[in-house]
Each structure stands twice: as C-alpha cells, then as structure tokens.
Design a protein that fits this description.
Layout lengths: L6 H23 L5 H8 L4 H29 L1 H24 L4 H34 L4 H29 L3 H18 L15 H35 L5 H19 L2 H5 L1 H21 L3 H15 L2 H10 L7 H30 L3 H23 L12
GO molecular function: transmembrane transporter activity
Membrane topology: Multi-pass membrane protein
Keywords: Cell inner membrane, Cell membrane, Membrane, Transmembrane, Transmembrane helix, Transport
C-alpha cells in the first residue's frame, strides 16, 4: 500500500479482512436466539443450564486466548483466521448431531456443549486474528479503525444471524443451523486461502501474563460494560416470553443496528478526544438503556432500551482497547489484543449462569438491573483510569 493511502482505500482494505470476523460471528449469531429456548423448552433443562450453553462458548474463548495470541504473533494472523474458520465448521457438525438427537436430551445437550467449546476456541482465532491481520495490512496508525470495523462486523453479524437462526428453525428445523454454519465456514476458507497475509512483526515477545497485567484495568472496564451485552444476547428471548411479548429477535437486531450506527457516526471520536472519554460517555448511555429494559412496561420501550444499550456499548471495546494496546510494543500486539479481549470473554462467560440464577430467583426483568449496576461500575472505573493516566507517557513502540 502507498505510504499515505486515501481513507477510502484504507477502509476498503480493512473491510475486506474483517469480513472473516463477520462470517465467524454469523456462525455465533445464528444459534444465539434459538439455543436458550431449545435447551429450556425443547430439552427440558432449567434457565441456568440454558444460560450456561451460551456462556460456555465465551469461557472456551477466554481459555484459548493465550494460545491464539501465540499463533498470531509467531505464525501470522492469516493462519490464525484459517484455523478458526476450520473450527467454526467443526462446530456445525456438533450442531447437526444435537439436532438429530433431540429425543435424547442429555446426548443433545452434551453435543451442544462440545460444539460451543469448539466454536469458542475458533472465535478467539478469527476475531483477534482479523484485528492483527487488518493492523498489519494498513498500519498501526489505523488501529482504532480496524478495531471499530471489526466490531461492526461482529455485532452486525449477530444482528443478522439471530433472526436468521429463528427463521431457519421455524421453517426448516434445528438441523438447518448446522448446515448453515458448515457452508459459511467453507465460504470463509475459500475467501481467505489466497488472500495476502500480514507480515509477522519482528521483536521480543512479551510473556502473555505480563501483557495481561498491563491491560488488566482496561479489560476490567470492558468486562463490566460487556455484561449488558451478554444479558441481552442470552436472555432477551426468555425475557420477552415472560411478558408474552413478540418479536424478541427484533430487539437483538435493533441492538446490533444501533451498535453499528454509533460506530459509523462516532467512530472517529476515539482519535479526536481519546479512548477514555469515549468509554465514559458510552457506558453512561448503556447504563440508561439497561435501566430502561429493567423498568420497561411494554415491548416497544424494551426495544428502545435494547437500542440505547447497543448505542452505548458500541465504542466501549475500541475506546478502552486503543488505550490498552498503546501500553505494549507492536511485536506483542497479538498478545495485547488477545489479553484485552479475554475480559469480554470472561464477562460473557459468567453472565449466562449468573444472570440465569438471578432470573430464577427474582424474575427475568431483574437481570437488567444487575447489568445496569455492572455498567455503572465500568463507568466509574473508566473515570478513575482517565484521571490516573492523563500524564502517563505511552510506550515508545506502541501500536499508535
């Protein structure tokens, strides 16, 4: 690429790479609105197990982050993405097994758990790999753009995948989700196979645990903000059902559309006013949206709460992420992205069973109050970090 490429050329290059994140997250989104109801109502397990089926994927992503980061930094981002797409395809096989053994609830449940574990490991490879691949192709000065577009790809895929999964199951059956995941993985592999890789950055690799310690405060803020997303993604369908409201999948789509719209409109704010300021504003809006979901007396106001939550959560990941990646040298960028992303995996991993337990004791509305409190704590932490780091110098070889 030229030394100073046009903004449009940079954006097109980034979009061509985060396309693989889009494909990977379609595989995640397709079963997202279906599996909790299938496990709870179809297989007869309780709300905690239904939440755990979703959350185990995020736990697998969390545990696989260190290994994925080593693959990205040592062997290249393209290889990581290809390995991840293979994993997505394998998860589709286990989805098919679960569909065809629905009359054997325990066998079906175990197959779902295995498939979710495989998909979680694949997610860490595809998501972080695409970020590393994009930064390597367009330059570290465009880190915020790459992270933002990667998020647009991921949440856009969830917004499309959730209602698509509902329609597939309604018209064809659960097996159709497994076939769709296999076909999407094959498409991703075909597109990635001959695409130009990003060069592997030379230099000393910081130990993953050292990098993890550096990004711990930023990741904690991300984790607290991510609880709202995990709560909406996992329980919005059961929340709507508890009120006898329709169009639950629409709330996920509206969440994703608001998320994408906010990134497209306000994505440049991170470079203009700084990551911490953006994170503070975003988590304020997210907290208000979650409170509205908690108090919503109608499906329409619940939709508004989901939209507001999506708008608020939109820039939390890139805003705190840019500040976190700035703390390490470029040769350890993959480790920084992986270590930072680990915290949203942790957040989403514990949200399912924890929110499920809260719902079992206090009702489904109460889980949004829990998420709002977590978001407010993330806002408070971001304020503290902003005040503490105003005069802190960046690493001389940081990504930005």
């Amino acid at each position: 690429m030229p030394t100073n490429p046009r903004p449009l050329a940079v954006t097109l290059q980034v979009v061509s790479i985060v396309l693989f994140t889009f494909i990977g997250y379609l595989n995640i989104g397709i079963p997202l609105a279906v599996l909790p109801g299938f496990v709870h109502n179809g297989l007869g397990f309780n709300a905690v197990i239904a939440g755990l089926v979703i959350s185990v994927q995020y736990l697998a992503t969390l545990l696989s982050r260190p290994h994925s980061s080593r693959i990205i930094d040592n062997h290249g981002s393209k290889k990581a993405v290809i390995y991840g797409l293979f994993g997505c395809g394998l998860s589709g096989v286990f989805m098919l097994i679960a569909a065809f053994t629905h009359n054997l609830p325990m066998v079906s449940l175990v197959s779902l758990f295995i498939g979710r574990l495989v998909l979680g490991s694949a997610e860490s490879l595809v998501g972080s790999g695409s970020i590393g691949w994009g930064i390597g192709r367009v330059g570290s000065q465009h880190t915020a753009k790459v992270i933002s577009w990667n998020g647009i790809a991921s949440y856009g895929a969830l917004a499309i995948g959730a209602p698509a999964g509902v329609l597939l199951v309604q018209h064809l059956g659960l097996w159709a989700m497994g076939v769709s995941i296999l076909l999407l993985a094959a498409l991703g592999l075909a597109l990635a196979w001959n695409k130009t890789p990003a060069p592997v950055v030379a230099g000393e690799r910081m130990p993953f645990m050292h990098v993890l310690g550096k990004v711990l405060p930023h990741g904690t803020g991300l984790a607290l903000g991510g609880i709202g997303f995990g709560t909406i993604a996992t329980f919005i369908t059961l929340y709507y059902a508890s009120h006898n409201w329709g169009n639950a999948a629409l709330s996920l789509s509206l969440f994703g559309a608001s998320f994408i719209g906010a990134r497209l409109i306000f994505g440049n704010l991170i470079n203009r006013i700084g990551g911490f300021r953006v994170a503070i504003g975003c988590m304020t809006v997210e907290s208000l949206g979650l409170l509205l979901l908690w108090l919503a007396p109608s499906a329409e106001l619940a939709l508004a709460g989901a939209a507001l939550s999506g708008f608020g959560f939109s820039l939390v990941f890139p805003a705190l992420g840019v500040e976190a990646v700035n703390l390490v040298p470029a040769s350890s960028r993959g480790a920084a992205v992986g270590a930072y992303s680990l915290f949203v995996d942790l957040s989403l991993g514990i949200t399912g069973p924890l929110a499920g337990a809260i719902a079992a004791g206090f009702g489904f509305s109460s889980i949004f109050l829990f998420a709002a409190i977590a978001s407010f704590l993330g806002l408070s932490l971001s304020l503290y970090l902003y005040r503490q780091t105003l005069n802190q110098p960046r690493h001389p070889d940081a990504a930005l």
